[in-house]
Amino acid sequence: MDTENKKYNMLMDMLRKSKPDMGDPEILSEKILNRIRDRKRKVISLEIIVDYLFGWIYIGWVRKSLVIASLFIVIVFVYQQTVILKKVNDLSEQIVVTGDETFAPSKNDLDMTLLLYKFSGRTIPSGNVNIPEQQLEQLIESYNELKERYEDLLKLIEDDPELKEYIEKSLDSKNRESNL
Amino acid sequence: MRRKKLILTVTMILVLTNSCDEPETVVTNFVHPDGSVTRKIEMKNSENNFKISDIQVPFDSTWIITDTIEVDENSDTTWVKRAEKLYVNVDAINMEYRMDSGANRNISRSAEFSKKFRWFNNEYRFVERIESKMSHGYPVSDFLDPEELRFYYSPEYLKYEKLSGPDSLKYKQLDDSVEKKSERWILKNFVAEWIEEFGRLTRNKTGNNMLRDTIKKREDEFISLVEEDEEKFDSLWSNGLILKEFIGEENSLKYSEEADSADGIVLNHFWIDFKDYSMRVAMPGKLTGTNGFIDSNKILLWPVKSNFFLTEPYEMWAESRIPNKWAWIVTGLFLIFVITGLIIRTLKKG
């Protein structure tokens, strides 16, 4: 163990006494200087790029033009979005339908047809006239309703002898007038 | 009561005319961003009875057709015929409209599509237009207020829903008002058209517009006379009493033939040979405007009835937009660039 310790201590002494070998100190200093120069170059090139890209900030008319263009774009954007928003709001007020979208003729359509028929001298133009089934059903329904009411009226007259007599008399006198 | 009497009078005649079980038709246009249109037709009928002559829009052998049968909970069968066709643009649709030999061939129809570049968005507009049949009529908007107009142009089932819904009383009043006013509208159109036709025919003989101008000045009076003496209208007309009242005895005898001819011409304008249907449109992108009704799938709906284009063109239009994503990115980068430049300038100044 003593021998090993002695060898270790000797080796340590030798290392402590020996100075580092610089080799070529000029190359080393050159390398250090180059590194410092590179750092400066990088900073300079970034500045060049920034100046290249944003050089316009030093030119008055370009700067003003770009600011005006930006403002114009913002105004256009705001205007377009406002118009769209207004349209969409108007749209939301429109009626949303959820039913069966197939066409079905209405009572008013029938009224129109009848009105035209009446003012056209009770004539229907030549050619093929198609009456949708729904309209026809409405007509028959109305006819049946009228017939029913007419029957009710007849029954009412039959049940009331006084009313019957009065109506018969009225009809007779009317017939006589028309015969004259 | 008056209506019922009329119904009774006309029922037998109508029964004798061709009454057929017509299919209910919905025409749907799917508009694409490039302007092409996929048109779909759906026809429903309680019988398997579909005739090409019944189809409301131009139809030929190039359509892809599928037939299905639907049976509801009451075991009622509905026959459904579906057809589909892709049109490369609206010009192709318009060409078919011009060459139409179908049920609505007598009506002038057209479609329009426009795409506008608006930097942040592309705006689309699609219009289906039906030209008016009359030249001298009055717009229905002169007779109905906005609420009545909305009701007037509503799909039938929507009217039915309102008339049987919680505000039924209000809507029944509205319905009655619309009915009454639209009757007057029809009558006024009939008279206006007759006056113009009569004026045109008599001008050929007299060489001036004197007779037309004389009656036109008293148009409202003419209408009132017709309305007041509705029951006697036929006899008053055939005896020439109405004409005599307005243009004098001598002229009424002289131009009675022209008066009857004008009546016939006007009648043909009114009896429009047209099969009603429903039109639907699905626009590309987000919907921004329309004059139609919107369904739950954001598909637009219009009923198409002959009264709607009697005196003015019936336009069914829709607008939509699709955002230009690249334009948003370019604009954002530009604004960042300008703002950064201004910040750098401020920093350097400081």
Question: How would you characterize the overall build of this protein?
Answer:
The complex is a heterodimer of chains A (180) and B (350). With 180 residues, chain A is an all-alpha fold. Chain A has 6 helices and 1 strand; from the N terminus they run H-H-H-E-H-H-H. The radius of gyration of chain A is 55 Å and the shape is rod-shaped. The termini of chain A are far apart. The model of chain A has no long low-confidence stretch (mean pLDDT 77). In chain B, the strands form 2 sheets. Chain B has a 7-stranded mixed β-sheet. In chain B, strands 5-6-11-8 form a 4-stranded antiparallel β-sheet. Chain B folds into 2 domains: 160 residues, no CATH class; 135 residues, no CATH class. The longest helix of chain B is centred in the middle third of the chain and has 39 residues. Chain B contains 12 helices and 11 strands. In chain B, strand 9 and strand 10 form a beta hairpin. In chain B, helix 5 runs antiparallel to helix 6 and helix 5 crosses helix 7. Chain B has 350 residues and is α+β, with helices and mostly antiparallel strands. Classes of the chains: A mainly alpha (180), B alpha+beta (350).
Quickly list its features.
heterodimer; A: 180 residues; mainly alpha; 76% helix; rod-shaped; B: 350 residues; alpha+beta; seven-stranded mixed β-sheet; four-stranded antiparallel β-sheet; 11 strands; 44% helix; extended
